[in-house]
Request: fold
Amino acid sequence: MADIGAIKNDLSPDDPAANVTWAQLTDQQRMVLAPLKTEWDTLRPWQREKMLDIAREYPKMDAQKQQRVQKQLVKWSRMTPYERENARKRYQQFQSLTPDKKEALRKQWKEHQRKAAASEGYDPEFDGAEP
Reply:
């Protein structure tokens, strides 16, 4: 599955998928795309098509991947248009890197996540005890 923020430029405004309203989606599509309900009708045609692609692939995904997609859709729905545009640009920049540079960045990210998880230890200030 491509990144949710990836841009799809080959969709014509005349394409029927470009003009699908929330009410026209199937029950299954609405279930998958529920985090986008309030903004669906304001999405650009290529964004709608991308989301429809995700909904189409969703039943074929294992439970872990489905959970990841739902989490990403929720995060995406909470982003401002400016944040989304920046996410798209970062994704495009990442895609243009060499395989070695991509792997180096992945390793750095995993290390960052590991350190962040390790630092989320016990903090007595937030244990609810009275001083």
The chain is about 55% helix and 0% strand. Residues 99-118 form the longest helix (20 residues). Residues 94 and 102 are 7 Å apart (CA to CA).
